[in-house]
Amino acid sequence: MLFKFVRNFVVLAAAISMAVSAVPATADCDTDNAVPFYRSYSNQATDHFYTTNYAEMDNAITNISYAFEGNMGLVFRDPTVSTALLYRLYSSPSTDHFYTTNQAEADNAVKNLDYNDEGTAGYVYTTQICASIPLYRLYSAGAVDHFYTTNETEREYAIAHLGYSDEGIACYVLPSL
Predict the structure, then answer these.
(1) 64: nearest Cα among 88, 45, 36
(2) Model pTM?
(3) Residues in domain DUF5648 (predicted)?
(4) Do 169 and 66 meet the contact criterion of CB atoms below 8 Å apart?
(5) Res 5: pLDDT
């Protein structure tokens, strides 16, 4: 009798454990640590550049002919429960910065498309949670430039008038303050 009770208890405990682990983690919407995701553009290199590092952005503007274009929302420098890594890659021959949350896509760009891994651009949402907004990804084959924006009007203009094609939503970021 005791054996049957213990066995039933173990089975019940295992079932509860499985049910609890099947419940998805709730979104961590603590946005206190979010930082600006700065954007700049170089006419000379036809390259959009994004970073959370103000000193790096200042260097690009001061020394490498980039013009500051504001920020594309807020991202995180450190991971949270609800965020994913945003890979930053750069192709020297094409002078193109490329950002993706997809590790296989990043690996392919490094192995087959002449991009170098520049590490982590930040941490972002892969779904629209915590009042986040889409960061759209566009690409111009003519300029060999990846372009990211949270502004839908800017996105539509780049597609209609600047030769960019829509590559969907790269990720979700918090709106700028």
Answers:
(1) 45
(2) 0.83
(3) 36-174
(4) no
(5) 39
